[in-house]
Amino acid sequence: MKLQKALEAQKAPNLILSDQILNEEGCVVVAQFLAQNTQFINIELRGCNINGRGFERICRSISPDARTLIAEWNAIGGGVSALCDLLMNPSYQLQLVDLKNNRIQADHCARICQMLKQNTSLQSLNLKWNEIGEKGAQYLLEGLNGNRNLKFLDVSCNKIPEGLATQIRERIEQNRSSDLMAKNSTGIKESQRNVYQPVKTIPKTAATTNIPDRAVKKNDAIRVAQLKEQIDQELRQNRLMNEELTNRMNALRQEILSKEQAVSMAKRHFEEEVTRKSIIEAEYTQVKRQFDELGKASDYRQQEVMNEYVAKNKHVLALENEYMHELSQIRHDNKQQIDQINANWQPRLDGIQSKFNSLMKANDQYNQQLLRMKEFFLKMRLDHDENVKAVEGRLLIEEKAKYNHQIELLKKKEMETQQTLKRAENESQSIQDDMQRLETNLTRDRQLIEEQIQQEREKVHQTHLQISKRSIKQEKLINNNIVLDHHIDNLIRKIDETFFILNIQKDRGMDDIQQRRLLQERQYALHKTNLQLQHQRILELERLMSSQEGNNIKLRAEYEKLCHIVQGKVQNAVIETCRLNLQLG
Questions:
Q1: Residues 6 or more apart from 424 whose CB is under 8 A from it?
Q2: What span, in angstroms and rounded, lies between the C-alpha atoms of 283 and 73?
Q3: Cβ neighbours of residue 567 under 8 Å, at least 6 residues apart?
Q4: Whole-angstrom Cα distance, residue 559 to residue 276?
Q5: CA torsion, points 280, 282, 283, 284, in degrees to nearest 10?
Q6: pLDDT by residue (tens digit) across 84-114?
Q7: Using CA atoms, how far apart are residues 48 and 302, in angstroms rounded to an integer?
Q8: Which of 57, 101, 291, 524 is close enough to 550 for a disulfide, judged by CB 3.0 to 4.6 Å?
Q9: What is the Cα–Cα distance from 172 to 143, expressed in whole angstroms?
Q10: To 5 degrees, how large is the angle CA 572–CA 573–CA 578?
Q11: Residue 199 carries which DSSP code?
Q12: Per-residue pLDDT for 21 more than 90?
């Protein structure tokens, strides 16, 4: 539903579907829409997640009147073959194709090579951020050898060797220079044709030769005077035109001198940039060496911490094993001692218990006898109460004396048994105190080791935080680079629009000198804006490299690439300005 609404909202001649998630069904819908609406000549499908099969369906539905196709940040891959078939058809006149970051590989470039050999309308092709490689670059160079119309080709960030990349750039520059020379030659011929017009000749009439009359001679004299005046007027006009041409030439010479001064300033600036680049490279190598040393020290310290952590863990495990072994040994020894004490004292306790039982039996018998005696004396209590009491007291004293000795012996043995039990309890208490003391020592050592491990973990965490901060800075830089790349793409699009406007103005009959002047002004403004953007990116890279404390291979590669691009653009600008000055001179 969203895709259908977006398609219905499009207005000719521009079809813009950026950042739409198009699966195969979405590509079918877009293809049907393009087949039904042939008025769209500028098609933009940036970042729509289009695969190769969906792109083939879209290519089959593009109108022959289409001029631009922007399909960057997708996953076209092998689907580029369908586009090559489209461009090899003479009825299609696509002029600008953008296939940046589309997983195009070296094998796909063979088809692009065939297309370049046969196509005559394509002027701009962007293949940046793909997987072309050395083999694909050779295919592209072969195709460019048979193509004279392609004025712009971007193959950067494709792992292409520098030699092949230089040859491709030179071939594109040859196409640009040949086109510019052809335009200049046609303009000069037209200006010469306008300036040097043939002088009108005086027609001879029969009256000047055949009629010797005075009136006729007078008329001829008047006509000759009129012809002389006309010739003088034409000569004055020619002088004025020559003066105007000389003024224009002087203005052009002054402009050439100013441009030569600008070129000298650019050369001086370029030399300063080269010296600055050498200084930055020296500082970068020093920073890289310091970062390598810091990285090695960090790795060594991290290895030491890990080794120490492993050793401490082993020590803790050994202490725990030793503690458990000692605890089990102490428990075993205590159990053996208690079993031995029980084994030693159990027979004695059994003997004492048996003797106590026998005494209790004797006491029961005594009580029974006493009861019988009480019964007997109660029967005889009438007259012999005093004698009975005396006998009873004597018997009681004798019985008590008889059993008191045995009871005292039993009490002494019971006291000795209690003392032995107390000694055993004291020994077990001392053993428990020793065990508690060992447990406290072990817990203290464990806490110390855990504190050290926690400190090392905090250090490692701080290191990870620093690494994450650097990665965040790198991501910010990459995002800034992407924004600058979009600016550069917009500048390239403006250049193409400028060429298109100049062609339209030329068709309307604008003067060649005004065309070249307008072209130079626009090229200079766009080139200046492009250099300012890239110079801003270089300054940002330098600031980020100076703020970081370590090595970063991505930043270095980006910085060297930008410096090389700026150097090449300055040299090309100098060469182009000299060539234009020579042509204007």
A1: 337, 338, 341
A2: 36
A3: 270, 273, 274
A4: 13
A5: 80
A6: 999 999 999 999 999 999 999 999 999 999 9
A7: 45
A8: 291
A9: 12
A10: 100
A11: P
A12: no
Worst-scoring range by mean pLDDT, 232-241, 345-354, 374-383, 556-565? 374-383
In this structure, what token pair is assigned to residue 3? 């895709």
Within 61-206, where are the H helices?
80-87, 108-118, 133-145, 162-195
Closest to 137 in 3D by CA, of 153, 121, 117, 115: 153
Residue pair 67/41 in contact by the 8 Å Cβ criterion: yes
* Two tokens, residue 417: 């048994």
Tens-digit pLDDT profile for residues 130-141 = 999 999 999 999
Half-sphere exposure of 512 (CA within 13 A, CB side): 17
Cα–Cα dist 406/355, whole Å: 9
537 neighbors 520 (Cβ within 8 angstroms): no
The letter for the amino acid at 440 is T
Q: Rounded CA gap, 170 and 173, in Å?
A: 5
Higher pLDDT, 422 or 383: 422
Given a cut of 60, whether residue 583 has pLDDT beyond it is no
Model confidence pLDDT, tens digit, residues 387-431: 656 656 666 676 666 667 777 777 777 787 778 778 877 777 777
3-state secondary structure 470-532: HHHHHHHHHHHHHHHHHHHHHHHHHHHHHHHHHHHHHHCCCCHHHHHHHHHHHHHHHHHHHHH
pLDDT band at 377 (very low <50, low <70, confident <90, very high): low
- Measure the CA–CA gap between 72 and 69, rounded to whole angstroms: 9
CB burial of residue 326 (10 Å; 0-12, 13-18, 19+): middle
pLDDT at 502: 61
pLDDT for position 284:
78
Q: Exposed/middle/buried for 473, CB within 10 Å: 0-12, 13-18, 19+? A: middle
> Three-state SS for 550?
coil
The residue among 191 and 505 whose pLDDT is bigger is 505
327, 346, 401 from 408: Cα distances, Å:
43, 21, 11
Distance CA 411, CA 389 (A): 31
Burial string for 286-307 (b: 16+ CB within 10 Å, else e) reads: ebbeeeeeeeeeeeeeeeebee
Query: What is the DSSP code (8-state) at residue 1?
Result: -
70 phi, psi to nearest 5 deg = -115, 110
**Packed helices 133-145 and 108-118: angle between N→C axes, nearest 10 degrees:** 10
Q: Quote the strand ranges of 424-483, DSSP E.
A: none
Task: Measure the CA–CA gap between 380 and 399, rounded to whole angstroms.
Answer: 22
Q: Is 231 exposed, middle or buried (0-12, 13-18, 19+ CB in 10 A)?
A: middle
User: What CA–CA distance (Å, rounded) separates 46 from 63?
Assistant: 19
Residue 151's φ and ψ, nearest 5 degrees, are -105, -15
What residues contact residue 179 under an 8 Å CB cut-off, 6+ apart? 151
Write down the pLDDT at residue 488.
67
The two structure tokens encoding residue 276 = 């600055």
